């Protein structure tokens, strides 16, 4: 029996091109004669534009056009609100180019199109912009005060909406509580920061009727819909393709950025291909951020440390506009309670405008926050009641036999009732505890307390709704000429290895040789329907769709082969691309031959005469339903399209632990160990999942100790370069010890759950817990992340751990 | 992020370079390794109208050992780090190079460029001050030698005149009895130092002699802490001396805070690192103090 | 010489991937732009243009450098190797490239050419008799950012390539 390819730890099938430097990222797309765009952006966070003079810029040699809002005509209108909600009462989105008031530093005020980027940047320096500064709102708490300055002068206050949900009877539970803890938990602003910035090239056909857009985006189809509406042309006149894309992590999953309208618009105006490649410093204010949330939490517990109720009212800093509605807060709210029973819940949040860059999902998308809240609150309970950090979790876990576990009254961002489909949290925790060897760690910790470098062990569990809706589709065809199995789907790849994992799924279902499978992604012209790659949904939706389509192709192949071999389909088996009669392997046809038979041409284009003769009309018969020709009921082509739309979210989970060494005299931290037990259901390719998890952890490490987008009171980012905003290098990221647990999801044919974001979600909670634990003898509690060396040293100093022990 | 236009020269001699700088008046800028200048030019934070590239100037990339060592200004950080000749004479400089950026940056960045750039948090200027290096400048008017203590005059400000370029750096021979220590705290490996300390000390008969302690990242330039050096003269390196040094170093500094770290943090960590660097330095002497 | 836009232009001659080129370039043109847009060698990627990310790493006269922090004119007479020159199309991958494939050392692939060239520079240093330890590997790749992998599989790739390129070398003490 041939070894299965599904579930196997196998290297990717598509790397060679990238390794040889033959990738084609958006800046590599060879479009002749493309002009280059540079945007002029507001230097002020909030101001009225009193004058903008573009004439000198227009006169710069090599400049083709300079546009202000006034040049846009009908395109000078607000960009769409993607997720309306009845409780989003004050939605605001921006126009492609600001004309009157600017609401954040970085907002576009003009667009320059020139021969090349050097010239365009020269011209940018010749734009004269006069702004009348308005009061700036940056701090979320301050934005809510009575009489606070206004982010949008046409609105009362700065709250865009307030959404409240309730499970059980929290008020009663708080009345009856043995103990109620109240704490504030905060995660701060950060950004996805893929190594490739955003960028696009737009080209219209000579009549200006059909748009070709190469765009480093995670979502080609939704963007097509949006542009069709904005340009008022049929979707069929727009082709969007995502070429090789250098990472996304959510920031390329937002669509209808102003540039996505302006670049195609300018290309149509100028009848020339137009290209915009965002530069890195520009990326800090042109591309969206995420993360700032402030949670005011109350937690009700019994004397045994069983949590009976959780009340969380939180604030989401949405930035200056809400094109994504209140989705981030809704995602956060849907994760409340985590891996724990917690029968009574109140969760509400308000979206708060600030004069900052818009916030939309970044890997984890609202989930790290709720993990941080829930896990830190559990640790606060443990501390208050003197219970061990493992034990307090066990007293509250949803039992391994309690799935599906419902939270009626709470919905996911997709509007589904929260029903955690499967999991095994007790098992997960036991696996972690065994891997950690706590007795040895406690001994090492005790020894560390004789020095200035203290060890701490922290852990956090997380659950994660993955595979957000609504659907993906896939087309699978066995090509008659080459026998290649071509899988085409609408969603995109930014490094997630879909080409390999989808090929594994197709090969397994079809019985094809893995090497014969080729995968195409992210091109609206190649697959008409799709949503995109975000929310850890590629495997859940996409792989399930491929599985369905491949299953249909397999069924058809068996029917056709049965006809060709004059046996019943039930007597056939498929392996390595060959369909043979069970027990009689000599009697067989290949998938490629069946594909030829499924293509009822009259012509022979190759010299495999024997094979052709078997397929051809040489044998006399009464009807085409006899013998090898395509049955009259069958459509031509060995191909099928499949779609998959899950009934509800699948819930992935995991538990992470870190051992961290903290230098109490300098605030320097070092990861000594990082251990993970990860459950994303059935694993298609463990090597790929490892890569996803470890990569997510590295981002979480960044978000714990290095990456904080720091705004000053004037709405200026203080660290808008990679020199100042530190992404961890290999020297900052720990070696991860990774253990897989597989609890299948009952909600899709493959039993898979999403794997893309889980790695990033718990890390700030884990790191905070480890710092707590390092300073546990001193009663420190970390309730805010990230922490930089100075803050860490201050914690140590405040705790009294910063003593005069030598540095040994 | 593309540089603004400029006029480019690639002279083949240092004298020619100096005269090009003189012609440019204050608008000229020397391009050495470019690892600090080019980022600033790409960001258009620096926009010299004349760029004088030293890449083709002969004779600036050698070393000459004679007790101490003379290192040409265009010797790359990577070469400094890998050179056994340099390591055997100025091991502290070798160690400091580990903290300068990252491998590809060190392959291109030059010792002279780093010194002339005079970032107050940079490692090479700190070592130059700690070890009492002398910097040789060539200008239109000739050559002069500037002690490191006088060379650095403020953040990104040096004693170099507009028409001068660095040609070589002289590190004196260290006494056989001396040990050294170099400690740095950065937000991440290879990042600019938040604070760094370089210390040299000799031990004679269990007593500390001739200590030199310099701090980077805690003042507008790399700074010797004379009060601490004096306090250590003749002292034993014990817990009391250690805690005294920490305090003296802290008190001697009045750094500016910035978005990366406050003044208080820099002072505090400077004290800690000074003590640790002296731990290393005394240990390295092989004598017990 | 100046071009239409007032830029000073000069003639540049250099060798790239074994081939000699002479081109007119504006003096302010970055080496990264010259390689990508003038020579069409788009395997060199540009991620930050201020010398932090390492995506644009190429080898100039044998050492790994940031091509965004060099003017093209500074490469006069230099020997430049880009990712396209490491192994020719149709030939087997260079051992470092192969190791990245085997260890799943790349995801989106954008940082990969920079990593591969930086690693080649380290592994080709003949003065070593021991294999690199993990800390040394992490230090060696510490000038290159990767946002996808968390580096672990890259470290593994370097370990594999090191062993392949240095047969018979002793294991480092840290892992012995």
How would you briefly describe this protein structure?
The complex is a heterotrimer of chains A (808), B (289) and C (176). By secondary structure, chain B is an alpha+beta fold.
Features of this protein?
heterotrimer; A: 808 residues; alpha+beta; 7-stranded mixed sheet; 6-stranded mixed sheet; 29 strands; 27% helix; 24% strand; disordered C terminus; B: 289 residues; 5-stranded antiparallel sheet; 4-stranded antiparallel sheet; 12 helices; 14 strands; 27% strand; globular
Please provide a written account of the structure.
The complex is a heterotrimer of chains A (808), B (289) and C (176). Chain A has 808 residues and is of the alpha+beta class. Chain A has a 7-stranded mixed β-sheet, with helices on both faces. Chain B is α+β, with helices and mostly antiparallel strands and 289 residues long. Chain B has helices at residues 14-24, 37-42, 77-82, 84-89, 91-97, 103-106, 111-117, 123-130, 148-151, 226-232, 239-252, 263-285; strands spanning 7-9, 28-31, 50-53, 63-66, 68-72, 134-139, 142-147, 152-154, 157-158, 165-171, 178-186, 193-204, 207-216, 223-224. Chain B has a 5-stranded antiparallel β-sheet with strand order 4-5-10-6-7. A 4-stranded antiparallel β-sheet of chain B has the order 11-12-13-14, sandwiched between helices. Chain B has a 3-stranded parallel β-sheet with strand order 1-3-2, covered by helices on one side. In chain B, strand 2 (28-31), helix 2 (37-42) and strand 3 form a beta-alpha-beta unit. In chain B, 59% of the residues are buried. With 176 residues, chain C is an alpha+beta fold. Chain C has 5 helices and 5 strands. In chain C, strands 2-1-5-3-4 form a 5-stranded mixed β-sheet, covered by helices on one side. In chain C, strand 1 (9-16) and strand 2 (19-26) form a beta hairpin. In chain C, helix 2 (95-102) crosses helix 5 (152-165). The mean pLDDT of chain C is 93.
SSE layout:
The complex is a heterotrimer of chains A (808), B (289) and C (176).
Chain A: H1 15-19, E1 35-41, E2 47-53, H2 55-58, E3 63-67, E4 101-102, E5 108-114, H3 117-124, E6 128-133, H4 140-144, E7 159-167, H5 170-175, E8 179-187, E9 199-204, E10 211-215, H6 220-231, E11 238-241, H7 258-270, E12 274-277, H8 280-286, E13 293-301, E14 307-319, H9 327-334, E15 344-353, H10 367-385, H11 389-394, E16 405-411, E17 417-420, H12 425-436, H13 438-448, E18 453-466, E19 472-478, E20 485-489, H14 498-510, E21 517-520, H15 538-565, E22 572-575, E23 578-581, E24 584-590, H16 591-597, H17 609-615, E25 639-644, E26 650-663, E27 669-679, H18 686-706, E28 736-740, H19 763-774, E29 784-785, H20 789-799
Parallel strand pairs in A: 1-12, 8-29, 10-11, 14-15, 20-21, 27-28
Antiparallel strand pairs in A: 1-5, 2-4, 2-6, 3-5, 7-15, 8-13, 9-10, 9-12, 13-14, 16-17, 18-26, 19-20, 19-25, 22-23, 23-24, 26-27
Chain B: E1 7-9, H1 14-24, E2 28-31, H2 37-42, E3 50-53, E4 63-66, E5 68-72, H3 77-82, H4 84-89, H5 91-97, H6 103-106, H7 111-117, H8 123-130, E6 134-139, E7 142-147, H9 148-151, E8 152-154, E9 157-158, E10 165-171, E11 178-186, E12 193-204, E13 207-216, E14 223-224, H10 226-232, H11 239-252, H12 263-285
Parallel strand pairs in B: 1-3, 2-3
Antiparallel strand pairs in B: 4-5, 5-10, 6-7, 6-10, 8-9, 11-12, 12-13, 13-14
Helix pairs in contact in B: 5-8, 10-11, 11-12
Chain C: E1 9-16, E2 19-26, H1 31-38, E3 57-60, E4 63-66, E5 79-81, H2 95-102, H3 112-123, H4 134-140, H5 152-165
Parallel strand pairs in C: 1-5
Antiparallel strand pairs in C: 1-2, 3-4, 3-5
Helix pairs in contact in C: 2-5
């Amino acid at each position: 029996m041939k070894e299965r390819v599904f579930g196997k730890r196998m290297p990717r099938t598509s790397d060679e091109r990238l390794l040889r430097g033959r990738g084609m990222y958006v800046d590599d797309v060879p479009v002749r004669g493309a002009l280059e765009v540079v945007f002029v952006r507001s230097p002020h966070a909030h101001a009225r534009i009193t004058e903008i003079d573009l004439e000198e810029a227009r006169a710069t040699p090599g400049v083709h056009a300079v546009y202000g809002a006034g040049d846009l005509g009908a395109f000078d209108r607000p960009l769409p609100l993607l997720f309306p909600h009845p409780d989003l009462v004050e939605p605001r989105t921006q126009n492609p180019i600001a004309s009157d008031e600017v609401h954040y530093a970085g907002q576009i005020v003009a667009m320059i199109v020139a021969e090349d980027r050097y010239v365009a940047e020269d011209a940018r320096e010749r734009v004269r912009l006069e702004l009348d500064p308005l009061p700036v709102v940056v701090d979320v708490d301050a934005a809510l005060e009575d009489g606070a300055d206004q982010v949008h002068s046409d609105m009362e206050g700065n709250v865009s909406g307030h959404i409240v949900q309730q499970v059980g009877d929290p008020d009663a539970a708080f009345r009856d509580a043995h103990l109620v803890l109240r704490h504030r938990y905060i995660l701060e602003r950060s950004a996805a920061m893929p190594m490739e910035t955003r960028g696009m090239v737009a080209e219209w056909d000579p009549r200006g009727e059909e748009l070709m857009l190469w765009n480093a985006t995670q979502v080609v189809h939704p963007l097509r819909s949006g542009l069709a509406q904005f340009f008022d042309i049929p979707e069929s006149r727009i082709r969007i393709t995502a070429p090789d894309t250098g990472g996304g992590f959510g920031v390329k999953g937002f669509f209808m950025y102003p540039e996505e309208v302006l670049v195609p618009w300018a290309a149509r105006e100028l009848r020339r291909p137009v290209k915009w490649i965002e530069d890195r410093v520009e990326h800090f204010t042109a591309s969206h951020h995420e993360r700032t949330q402030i949670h005011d939490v109350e937690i009700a517990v019994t004397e045994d440390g069983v949590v009976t109720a959780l009340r969380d009212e939180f604030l989401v800093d949405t930035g200056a506009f809400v094109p994504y509605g209140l989705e981030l807060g809704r995602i956060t709210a849907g994760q409340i309670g985590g891996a724990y029973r917690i029968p009574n819940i109140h969760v509400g949040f308000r979206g708060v405008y600030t004069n900052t860059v818009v916030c939309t999902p970044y890997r984890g998308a609202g989930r790290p926050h709720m993990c941080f809240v829930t896990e830190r609150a559990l640790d606060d309970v443990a501390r208050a009641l003197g219970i061990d950090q493992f034990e307090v979790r066990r007293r509250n876990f949803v039992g391994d036999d309690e799935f599906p576990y419902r939270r009626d009254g709470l919905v996911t961002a997709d509007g589904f009732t929260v029903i955690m489909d499967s999991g095994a949290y007790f098992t997960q925790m036991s696996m972690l505890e065994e891997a950690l060897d706590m007795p040895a760690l406690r001994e090492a910790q005790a020894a560390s307390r004789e020095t200035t470098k203290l060890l701490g062990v922290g852990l956090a569990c997380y659950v994660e709704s993955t595979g957000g809706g609504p659907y993906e589709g896939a087309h699978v065809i066995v090509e008659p000429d080459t026998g290649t199995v071509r899988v085409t789907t609408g969603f995109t790849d930014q490094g997630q290895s879909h080409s390999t994992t989808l090929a594994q799924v197709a090969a397994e279902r079809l019985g094809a040789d893995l090497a014969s499978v080729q995968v195409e992604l992210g091109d609206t012209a190649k697959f008409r329907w799709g949503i995109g790659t975000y929310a850890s949904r590629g495997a859940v939706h996409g792989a399930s769709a491929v599985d369905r389509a491949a299953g249909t192709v397999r069924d058809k192949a068996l029917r056709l082969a049965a006809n060709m071999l004059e046996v019943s389909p039930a007597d056939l088996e498929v392996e390595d691309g060959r369909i043979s009669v069970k027990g009689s392997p000599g009697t067989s046809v290949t998938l490629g031959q069946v594909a030829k038979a499924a293509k009822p041409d009259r012509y022979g284009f190759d010299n495999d005469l024997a094979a052709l003769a078997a397929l051809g009309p040489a044998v006399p018969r009464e009807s085409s339903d006899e013998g090898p020709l395509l049955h009259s009921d069958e459509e031509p082509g060995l191909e099928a399209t499949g779609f998959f739309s899950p009934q509800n979210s699948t819930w992935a989970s995991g538990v992470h632990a870190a051992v961290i060494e903290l230098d109490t005299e300098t605030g320097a931290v070092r990861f000594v160990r990082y251990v993970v037990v990860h459950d994303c259901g059935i694993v298609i390719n463990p090597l790929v999942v490892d890569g996803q998890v470890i990569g997510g952890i590295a981002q979480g490490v960044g978000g714990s100790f290095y990456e904080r987008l720091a705004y000053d009171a004037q709405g200026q980012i203080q660290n808008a370069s990679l020199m100042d905003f530190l992404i961890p290098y290999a020297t900052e990221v720990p070696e991860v010890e990774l253990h897989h647990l597989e609890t299948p999801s009952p909600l899709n044919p493959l039993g898979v759950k999403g794997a893309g974001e889980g790695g990033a979600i718990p890390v700030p909670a884990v790191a905070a817990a480890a710092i707590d634990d390092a300073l546990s003898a001193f009663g420190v509690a970390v309730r805010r992340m990230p922490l930089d060396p100075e803050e860490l040293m201050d914690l140590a100093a405040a705790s009294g751990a910063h003593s005069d022990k030598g540095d040994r | 992020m593309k540089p603004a236009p400029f006029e480019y020269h690639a002279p083949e001699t240092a004298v020619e370079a100096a005269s090009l700088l003189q012609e440019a008046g204050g608008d000229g800028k020397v391009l050495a390794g470019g690892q600090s200048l080019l980022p600033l030019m790409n960001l258009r934070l620096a926009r010299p109208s004349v760029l004088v590239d030293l890449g083709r100037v002969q004779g600036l990339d050698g070393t000459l050992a004679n007790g101490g060592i003379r290192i040409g200004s265009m010797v790359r950080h990577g070469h400094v780090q890998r050179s056994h000749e340099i390591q055997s004479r100025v091991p502290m400089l070798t160690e400091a190079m580990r903290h300068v950026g990252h491998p590809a940056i060190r392959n291109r960045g030059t010792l002279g460029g780093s010194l002339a750039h005079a970032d107050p948090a940079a490692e090479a200027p700190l070592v130059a001050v700690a070890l009492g290096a002398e910097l040789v400048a060539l200008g239109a008017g000739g050559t002069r030698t500037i002690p490191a203590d006088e060379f650095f005059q403020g953040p990104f400000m040096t004693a170099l005149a507009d028409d001068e370029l660095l040609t070589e750096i002289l590190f004196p021979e260290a006494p056989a009895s001396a040990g050294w220590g170099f400690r740095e705290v950065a937000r991440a490996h290879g990042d600019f130092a938040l604070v760094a300390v370089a210390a040299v000390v000799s031990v004679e008969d269990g007593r500390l002699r001739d200590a030199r302690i310099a701090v980077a990242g805690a003042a507008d330039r790399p700074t010797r802490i004379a009060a601490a050096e004096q306090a250590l003269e003749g002292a034993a390196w014990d817990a009391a001396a250690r805690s005294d040094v920490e305090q003296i170093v802290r008190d001697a500094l009045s750094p500016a805070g910035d978005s990366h770290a406050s003044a208080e943090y820099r002072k505090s960590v400077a004290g800690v690192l000074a003590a640790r660097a002296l731990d290393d330095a005394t240990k390295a002497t092989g004598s017990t103090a | 010489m100046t071009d239409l836009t007032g830029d000073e232009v000069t003639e540049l001659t250099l060798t790239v991937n074994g081939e000699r080129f002479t081109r007119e370039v504006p003096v302010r043109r970055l080496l990264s732009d010259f390689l990508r847009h003038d020579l069409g060698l788009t395997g060199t990627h540009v991620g930050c243009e201020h010398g932090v990310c390492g995506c644009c790493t190429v080898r100039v006269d044998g050492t790994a450098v940031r091509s965004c922090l060099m003017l093209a004119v500074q490469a006069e007479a230099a020997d430049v190797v880009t990712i396209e020159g490491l192994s020719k199309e149709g030939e087997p991958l260079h051992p470092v490239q192969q190791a990245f494939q085997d260890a799943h050392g790349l995801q989106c692939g954008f940082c990969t050419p920079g990593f591969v060239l930086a690693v080649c520079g380290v592994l080709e240093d003949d003065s070593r008799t021991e294999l690199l330890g993990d800390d040394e590997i992490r230090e060696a790749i510490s000038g290159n950012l990767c946002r996808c992998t968390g580096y672990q599989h890259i470290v593994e790739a370097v370990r594999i390539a090191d062993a392949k390129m240095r047969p018979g070398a002793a294991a480092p003490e840290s892992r012995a």
